UniProtKB/TrEMBL annotation:
<dbReference type="Pfam" id="PF06209">
    <property type="entry name" value="COBRA1"/>
</dbReference>
<protein>
    <submittedName>
        <fullName>NELFB factor</fullName>
    </submittedName>
</protein>
<dbReference type="GO" id="GO:0032021">
    <property type="term" value="C:NELF complex"/>
</dbReference>
<dbReference type="GO" id="GO:0034244">
    <property type="term" value="P:negative regulation of transcription elongation by RNA polymerase II"/>
</dbReference>
<dbReference type="InterPro" id="IPR010405">
    <property type="entry name" value="COBRA1"/>
</dbReference>
<feature type="region of interest" description="Disordered">
    <location>
        <begin position="556"/>
        <end position="582"/>
    </location>
</feature>
């Protein structure tokens, strides 16, 4: 700190500072006497000290050290006292005391040794005077030094400044999500959806935002507004996840000031429990339905928020997994989808979640209309695939007659492909069904339905979340990668159709090969390596992955020595230079 800052504000309080001493010494005839007088006037006014100080001099303790230790001790006591005042007596009285104290001490706010006290007083005031807040805001160093409690008071009337603080955190959050989706660790056991909601809420960004908001409803509303705006601008669904995580983080801390005014609180809380179990059970399904049915006339706007909560990929994942499970149960019960209220509710919520962007964009707050064909044609079609699998399994076990084994059905009903291209909900459920059969290691069903993924609604089959889950599940079919037919269907028939136009698909294929290259037949691997070579337009991530893959494949190539059939036993010894001959 500069010399001026060291003594900032002392003159206003009538306390002598370094400048005064300098002036005294410049204009006096006897400097030693002047110093002594200055010490007497400005020292610690305790009679008993007059005798103790010379004693300290004898021990070689500089006066500065003594005064500094007294000062530090007094500051600590004062900080303790300020914190105590903030808790004692009647509310008006205690804040009056603190306001008086702030008035007296604020002129010293730039003095480094006193600043902590001034900041502590402000921290404990629920309403710092406007004038003081403006002075703090105008000074970068003061703004940086003040407590979050004071910053909240500044932010709530300065949305732009608050936005500047929040923006890097939101960028960091999205980056963290993308890093998980593109992680080089591929596994069907650990994936994007593995961490529990409670674990996710402990993440750095959610915790920081929670702290920045405190109990301030205005700041909470601002963050939600930022998230809505960014979701609209980018269509990035991770903002929906953050919307739910933030509310539940405040719920964990029992911040009722905010939770009671967020109309989505109880719905989100119930859905959070479903996400934790990765299943919507009957009891919770009733609760969730109650919330949706309870949206009153004139309050439809809440549907915009509920749709954003349901658009969170973790919510979609839970609803889609539950839908697949219900469909399997219905096959066993000989029941049609339209006869299952639980299934219809899952579809209703999926539909609301998938329609979030359109609803917030159009500001037309009503539930999307469910297409009857989804329930009467598409879902029975998926159930017929489940039946095909059961039939094939039973046929395999029956003694084969003359006509030989019955082949697995290979044709895809045209209606299935059409639904995946034209209906968003059908496409989402269809993709989850494909993930389900892959996880069951059902190669036949996978190869049968794979061609339907080349063209899907809004290219959903090439979205990062689906490809992240698919690559993880494909590790369960790792032995199939040695087969030409399997690799041609998967790579040439699916992945490579999108690689040139979609950088993210290129990345996911490279991730998969980095993990499974040792299972792929050498000839196929060579042609894949050529096909996946980055172009000039490719980003750094693709180039980096491709280089990693090339290095791994280089290591696998047999060395020339291994290729020669009978290596000579009489190899000449390499000549090692002796130190003298260098």
């Amino acid at each position: 700190p500069g010399q001026a800052d060291m003594y900032a504000g002392l003159q206003e309080l009538g306390v002598a500072n370094g400048e005064d001493l300098k002036e005294t010494l410049t204009n006096c005839t006897e400097p030693l006497k002047a110093i002594e007088q200055f010490q007497t006037e400005n020292g610690v006014l305790l009679p008993s000290l007059q005798y103790a100080l010379p004693f300290l001099d004898l021990h070689g303790t500089p006066r500065l050290e003594f005064h500094q230790s007294v000062f530090d001790e007094l500051r600590e006591k004062l900080l303790e006292r300020v914190s105590a005042i903030a808790l004692e007596g009647k509310v008006e009285e205690r804040y009056k005391k603190l306001e008086d104290l702030l008035e007296k001490s604020f002129s010293l706010v730039k003095m480094p040794s006193i600043q902590p006290v001034v900041m502590c007083v402000m921290k404990h005031l629920p309403k710092v005077p406007e004038k003081k807040l403006k002075l703090v805001m105008a000074d970068k160093d003061l703004y940086k030094a003040c407590a979050v409690e004071v910053k909240r008071q500044i932010w709530q009337d300065n949305q732009a400044l608050f936005g500047d603080e929040v923006s890097p955190l939101l960028k960091q959050y999205i980056l963290e999500k993308e890093n998980i989706l593109f992680s080089n660790d591929i596994s069907f056991l650990q994936n994007f959806f593995s961490p529990s909601p409670k674990t996710r809420r402990q993440g750095e960004v959610v915790q920081k935002l929670t702290q920045m908001i405190g109990k301030n409803v205005k700041l909470y509303d601002m963050v939600l507004q930022f998230l809505r705006t960014l979701f609209l601008r980018t269509r990035n669904v991770h903002y929906c996840t953050l919307r739910a995580e933030l509310l539940m983080s405040l719920h964990d801390l029992e911040i009722s000031d905010i939770c009671t005014v967020d109309p989505c609180h109880k719905f989100t809380w119930c859905l959070d429990a479903c996400i934790r179990e990765k299943f919507v059970d009957n009891k919770r399904a009733r609760e969730l339905q109650g919330f949706l049915d309870g949206v009153k006339k004139g309050q439809e706007q809440v549907l915009g928020d509920l749709s954003m909560i349901l658009c969170d990929p973790f919510a979609i994942n839970t609803l889609a997994l539950s839908t697949i499970r219900h469909l399997q149960d219905l096959v066993g019960q000989d029941t049609l989808p339209r006869e299952s209220p639980d299934l219809l509710l899952l579809l209703r919520m999926l539909s609301l979640g998938q329609g979030a962007w359109d609803m917030i964009d159009s500001q037309v707050f009503k539930e999307p209309k469910m297409e009857a064909e989804l329930i009467t044609r598409f879902l029975p079609l998926l159930m017929s695939f489940v039946v095909d699998d059961h039939t094939f399994t039973v046929d395999q076990k029956l003694p084969s007659e003359e006509k030989g084994p019955i082949p697995y059905p290979s044709a895809i009903p045209e209606a299935f492909t059409k639904f995946l291209q034209e209906n968003r909900i059908a496409c989402e459920i269809g993709l989850y069904y494909i993930l389900h059969i892959t996880k069951q290691r059902n190669k036949n069903a996978f190869l049968r339905l794979l061609p339907a993924l080349v063209e899907t609604f809004s290219d959903l089959a090439f979205s990062d979340i689906f490809l992240h889950l698919l690559t993880g599940n494909l590790t369960l079919l790792s032995d199939e990668f040695a087969l030409e037919e399997f690799c041609t269907s998967l790579f040439d028939g699916f992945f490579l159709t999108a690689c040139p136009r979609k950088e993210n698909v290129h990345r996911h294929v490279l991730r998969l090969l980095l993990h499974l290259h040792h299972k792929v037949a050498p000839a196929k691997l060579e042609s894949l390596q050529k096909a996946l070579e980055p172009t000039k337009q490719s980003g750094e991530a693709v180039k980096e992955l491709y280089n990693q893959l090339s290095e791994k494949l280089e290591l696998r190539k047999p060395s020339p020595a291994e290729v020669t059939e009978t290596p000579s036993m009489e190899l000449p010894l390499p000549t090692v230079p002796t130190p003298a001959s260098r």
